[in-house]
Amino acid sequence: MTSLQTFAPRSNKVSLALFFTLLFLFPQKTGLACYYNISEPYTFNLIDRNIIGTENAQDLILERLHNKYLFKDKERIEDSAMNNIKEWQKAVCTAAEEDEIRSALYDFSASDYEKLLTNIKVKNMPIPYHMEGNYFIQYLYKNKCEDTVEYLLFSKKCEPHVIDYSGWLNNGKNSLQMQELISKGLKSFKKCKSQYIRLRYAYQIIRLAHYSKNYKQAIDLFDFLMPKIDVKTFDGKKSLIYYWNLSLKAGALRHTRQFPEASFLFSKVYDNSKELQDASLRSFLIRSEEEWETCMTFCKTNDERALLHTMRANEKGSKALGAMKAIYDLNPKNKYLKILLIKELEELEEDLLGITFNKTKAKLKTRNIPRSGIKSYASDMRTFIMQVIAEKKVEDLEVWQVAQAYVLLLTGDNRSASIALRKVVNSTEDSTLKDQVEIFLLAQIIDAFEIADEQTENLAYALIRNNSYYNSNTYFPRYLGDKLRSLYDVEGALGKSYLCHKTYDDLKRAQPEDIIKDLVQLIERGDLNNLEQLLLTQGTDFIMSDELYDLLAVHHMQEGNFEAAMESYRMIPRPNWDNFGIYDPFRATIKDCHECPHSKDTLDLFNRGEFIEEILDLQYKLKAEEKENAAFYLKIGVGIYNSSYYGHSWKVMDYFRSVRHWDGQIMDSNNKEVKNLGLAAYYFDMARQAANDKEQAAKACYMAAKCELIDFYHSEAYKEPECCNTVPYIPEEFGNYYNLLLDQYGDTKFYEKIINECQFFRAYAYR
User: Fold this and answer.
1) Cα angle, residue 79 at apex, residues 235 and 163 outer, rounded to 5°
2) 200 burial level (CB within 10 Å; 0-12, 13-18, 19+)
3) CA angle, 547 as apex, 544 and 551 as ends, to 5°?
4) What is the DSSP pairing of strand 588-589 with strand 237-238?
5) Model confidence over 600-651: pLDDT tens digits?
6) Whole-model pTM?
7) Angle 107-110-116 (CA atoms, 0-180°, nearest 5)?
8) Helix 530-537 to helix 454-466 angle, to the nearest 10 degrees?
9) Contact 703/634 with Cβ under 8 angstroms?
10) Fewer CB within 10 Å of terminal CB in the chain, N or C?
């Protein structure tokens, strides 16, 4: 970067080292009083699922509601592997560590188990060297567990056909080999004495048939093998392998379009196998009432029928009230009745809680939120809940009482909701339920705000500062922020509304004139209440009055109104001016470089206030000292140019610079850019005309040419070069100042400098 000229000297300034010290000492505005800016559609979630018990709260039907269980394939695989390991530990060798069993199952190869089997059968043969450190393997060897080792060898031979290591498993490709393995597995199954190992053989055999796409064979194998096995139980539940086998049969039935029976079996798997719940839910398919009636015929108990109703009603957005009524009639104490209650409350909450003031409600409509007819449905839900409470057949009656109160709150009956909630909180001994009630009461208090007066603002401040429920729930800041924003909008309090959901950084980026001016008026009004101070401190210990005047000054500079900018900067104590940056805007350059190091000479350095003062002083001198007008014009033009989007000191008039090309587009549409160089071009042309020195005139002409070049890049005449980052062809109508350089200043030393250093001018001159 070649310097054209360092302009008029000025008084000594603070050193750069001291500048950076001050910068870090000054508190940075990093957050909002209410919550951080969120642009994507959102709803509020205040329900603690644990009010129905931790185990029920973790049911997959609830996990899937807010996409909390999506993209967790690796976790499900790991859960399945760990449950498998634990069952091996319980069934075969309780003394072995889980990591040893994991290594035995997943690290050793078929050839390893062939050697181990041989060494078990041959007297005095030791454990293979690389397996001897594993206690689980030692146990199998010492106790001559041939059945178990033969099974592990068989499972390793099955793996290439049923486990997709590459992501490109082609089921059925090696069906002949898979059938041979099925035959070998059946022989091993027949001679195996261990009922547990027989169950695992059955799994491998059925899985081979399923993965070879011989689904009828898979069904037949299940029906043939499973009656021949005394299925082992662990902690009162059948082995997880039993449900793995049942899932394979259900999948085979689905592939053969036997949907009712398949769905019934998937419900059984769902109810008993945590790791297979997701697959079971996704595979459950009932297409008609006829299929539904057929599916129900497979049930032997009311709980099985209740489970089918639950599976059918699990989908997000489905209205499960009908299923809940059916389950209630079958068994009021069935656990899935409570699970569906929470599901429906969460979906009603998504539809109705704060929807009238939700900042993203317009975007939510595109996602069918709230659902059509939802208030009528909520009323029907409340009627059912009232029936359940009146009949007192369910467990956890207090949960239903809280649910009734919450539906009242969601449908706008705040008074009745408050009475019902306080009744529960005074009677229950359940701490989780008490906390839930307090959370709902807090939501009711916020929802009841009608006007953003002093009383409301003081209450809001007290909630933010002192309410533990407000501070422990991530949704409350957003909920309160949206409510206050809606009230401020009605009153026309633009600045406070803005700060309810945006940050100081947002202000710097977008620089909304009306918001900044409204906030400045708020500062100048004085006598701020606690909430107003909280909004204006943005998470620091200082009210951002200096920052607002700085923002207003930058806005005025962008409009070319330096007098108004100076009025704003005079409101900032002069010792604080350096807090907003120090720049060298009057250092002209041939090439623009936005990230190059700035001058270290303190004579070149100006903060924003001093920059404004310098511009105003130069403008005054233009009226008083005609002999130096060319230098003054040039210096003003250089300062304005360098403070624009294209100059090295762009931060003087902006806070962010979006990286894009010359076509005027920007990556961040919220960022206001300073791209109009008309004023700078005016001063450069005036400097050229006023110059008595040809070298000075050439410099001014070249700077005007830079402005004209940027005009070209923003015009319809500009066409991006097809390749190679070549210099584009500049039409004659955008080459006026280049032509002046060629015609009038070709004999200057400055001309020689720019012809060597500026490829744009060189390309134009030699074309």
Assistant:
1) 115
2) buried
3) 140
4) unpaired
5) 777 889 999 999 999 999 999 998 877 789 999 999 999 999 999 999 999 9
6) 0.80
7) 90
8) 60
9) yes
10) C
